[in-house]
Amino acid sequence: MAQKRDSWAEPYKIKMVEPLTMTTREQREKALVEAGYNTFLLPSELVYIDLLTDSGTSAMSDRQWAGMMLGDEAYAGSRNFYHLEKAIQKHYGYKYIVPTHQGRGAENILSQIMIKDGQFVPGNMYFTTTRLHQELAGGKFVDIIVDEAHDPESLFPFKGNVDLDKLQKLIDDHGADKIAYVSIATTVNMAGGQPISMANLKALRELTSKDGIRIIHDMTRVAENAFMIQQNEEGYGNKTVAEIVKEICSLTDGATMSAKKDALVNIGGFMATNDWDVFEEARNMVVVYEGLHTYGGMAGRDMEAMAIGIEESVHDDHIRARVGQVFYLGQRLLDMGMPIVKPVGTHGVFLDAKAFLPHLPQTAFPAQTLAAELYLDSGVRAMERGIVSAGRNKETGDHYYPKLELVRLTIPRRVYTQAHMDVIAESVQRVYEHRDNITGLKMVYEPKYLRFFQARFEKLPK
Amino acid sequence: MKHRTIIEPFRIKSVEPIGLSTEAERVQQLKEAHYNPFLLRSSDVIIDLMTDSGTGAMSAHQWAGVMEGDEAYAGSRSWERMEQTIQSLTGMKHVLPTHQGRAAERIIYGHLGGAGKVFISNTLFDTTRANIEFSGATGIDIPIAEGQDPATDYPFKGNMDTGQLNLLLKEHQGKVGAVVLTVTNNSGGGQPVSMANAKEVAAVCKRHGVLFLLDCCRIAENSWFVKHREEGMDKLSYRDIARQMFELADGAVMSAKKDALVNMGGFLALRDPALAEACTNLLIITEGFTTYGGLSGRDMEAIATGLQEVFDPHYLNYRIRSTTFLGEKLKEMGVPLMWPIGGHAVYIDAKALYPHIPPHEYPGQALVCELYRLGGIRTVEIGSVMFGTYAEDGSLRPARMELVRLAIPRRVYTQSHIEYVAETFEEIMRTKEQVRGYKIVKEPRFLRHFTAHFEAL
């Protein structure tokens, strides 16, 4: 393992820059009204620091840009596909690969193949698009994450772990054949970017093996998860992130990946499996939804960038700087006494909106409100991860009321500097100081699926 | 002086080396690819005429756009540029970006389709038909009679038979998902659709209250034919002709990989806000958020620029003329082909070339393999492999025509590449009697041509 040190200085220098727009408070006030207080609906040009997501927003390396120029845009058999296939096999160890235009394309195909109507899909907390595809395929998501994951104050280092008793009970109650597969995310986004431990994953593998239940890996931030194992789990301090990533994958049977996160690209994803039958079916299906199985809806150049990005993403130096930057922001906010989810996750800092705005009931959308206030203060764009994202229960028609009501400050990879982090922390503090004056929101437009993307709100009167 | 020679209105800024191979190597490669060109490695191919989709060379201006792509997840300025460009071209307010054309098709046909529904078209393309059938609906092709005879000379062989359309709309009243006009008509030989025909189709649809959609992935090329072949249209610009055609439709589906001159991308454009909202819900599930739909910011930039470049009269002249150049050369050699030459490809009539190979032994596939063996030229069969179905007794219901498409990527190959292709055909003509057919030994349920395995007979 590389030497321990406190500073997380970037293992790269800047080669190309993108100018940012500075806005006035009046401009932002107007923009918020026009966007219906939904940060998704703000034009990117009016955003100063964009922490909406770490998905597809990374800066590529000069090697990746060079790869862009080597794109082979042939419809069939592009050499970039074979490079990508090799990179995935080498670094993740899965046998068969089907490329897709992004992660949800892979989820769509995998869910349709592996879920039978009425089956359960237990997982370590839901993710918006993942659960939706499971439900559309006739499955029912069951949360089997450890209880600590729902407690923003718990300092447990592996809040992404599965509670094996919850899984065992599900198997005992319904039988193993009612379980489509176990869905495991590395890291768990909705829990605040929390990792799963190798020990837990091994135990899960053992339990599922008894009943022949497959484990499907939502591996979008697997390198970050591997880094946390390296840092915090006994026996892994001397292993490289690359080794740990491969070990994680080896304990699962297949995967979906949005390459827009860890793999350092702006577009792309894939489905992987060790199972020939699943692969055969996926390869036929991908043609209908995505594109021929040697491009799956990606330009050749984007497959090349992904192949190179995967390799860069498992370097210890890269991942230490990546997570180090997130921890730096988290620590600053903790030092200021801001309520955030602890421990700090790997891809972002999650503000605890319930603690931030205790005077707002959950039906006044505290996290949505806080994200809007933050934008108003400084032009920092964050994302709601609370009741709006959770959506409605299909059967009762009522909101799901998630325990966590969070605002996600997601840090794009290799994009922002330490000075940007300081601006963010100071803005959060300013909003906190006048939090008593903040009123909530009411929803005035609600789309049918994934409502958080496009819902519109109005400010409640004081 | 007025020149006869049409030169490329550009010069080359970046090149990509081609690997050359021997015939013996290619015989081996074909065998490993189970005689399906979709399974060949691109790096083995010498001249890739498999498709004009996503294979074009972008301009320096587009590459500059690639560098300027705004990769923000929501509200990207690259999206704003793309949206405005499409709104002003189509006159349609609601634009949904998708990672490519088939995703836009799946969304709109998935929403409008379902069991019992019927879609009527001049000719549905393979992925379009697959999307429609995947939803449980049925697709009906009604090209005009002239469009079904490869040898007739007719200026607008892509037209739809509006008499039949009228009858079908009566027969299937209440069950028609949409009428889809594909411009140009790809499966029918890249043949254009006249403005007059588009107007008639629009009028019939209106009378029956049926949704009229344009599959517009080659609309600029279609506009070239309209300007030069249709009366009263020569005063209009190519872009104005396209705009006029869009005005007739209720919506449009585009694979931007063709006439938007990019390697990846597509969109769905609609007038009706309620339909757009329903489609937007589906877009978010499988494609991406409304302001990127599964595309990177840089690709949206490139689409916006490409949609402007494609209507440049010098570009379109070069494009259509260079495709015709290959067609004329082959015709002189006596190669049976679809006539007149379409916009993006030359279609060889394999049934006429190999009369001794019956449809169930796939004469088109035989020609595809020959072209690869002799010249390393990759092409695609558009015949009974792509569109054939099975009768209940397991026998093949052949497609109307057995064609092989030589699709010309935009701005990629030079005149000497084209002459190399023509020279390969000399050998094809010399040895045509010795060629044998193929049988399918493995095939998937949908879109079998992409992954099927063949064996030589």
Structure description:
The complex is a heterodimer of chains A (462) and B (457). With 462 residues, chain A is an alpha/beta fold. Chain A has helices spanning 25-34, 62-69, 79-91, 103-114, 128-136, 164-174, 198-211, 222-232, 241-250, 276-289, 300-313, 316-335, 353-356, 366-378, 387-390, 418-433; strands at 49-50, 96-100, 120-123, 140-143, 182-185, 215-218, 254-258, 269-273, 348-352, 380-381, 383-385, 406-410, 441-445, 456-459. In chain A, the strands form five sheets. Chain A has a five-stranded mixed β-sheet with strand order 2-8-7-6-5, with helices on both faces. In chain A, helix 2 packs antiparallel against helix 11 (300-313), helix 3 (79-91) packs parallel to helix 11 (300-313) and helix 4 (103-114) packs parallel to helix 5. Chain A is globular and about 60 Å long. Chain A starts with 24 loop residues before the first helix and ends with a strand. The mean pLDDT of chain A is 95. With 457 residues, chain B is α/β, with parallel strands linked by helices. Chain B contains 16 helices and 16 strands. Chain B has helices spanning 23-32, 60-68, 77-90, 101-112, 126-134, 162-171, 195-208, 219-229, 238-248, 273-286, 297-309, 313-332, 350-353, 363-375, 384-387, 415-430; strands at 47-48, 94-98, 118-121, 138-141, 176-182, 212-215, 251-255, 266-270, 345-349, 377-378, 380-382, 389-390, 396-397, 403-407, 438-442, 453-456. In chain B, the strands form five sheets. Chain B has a seven-stranded mixed β-sheet, sandwiched between helices. Chain B has a three-stranded antiparallel β-sheet with strand order 9-14-11. The radius of gyration of chain B is 21 Å and the shape is globular. The chains are: A alpha/beta (462), B alpha/beta (457). Chains A and B meet through helix 4, helix 5, helix 10 and helix 11 of A and helix 4, helix 5, helix 10 and helix 11 of B.
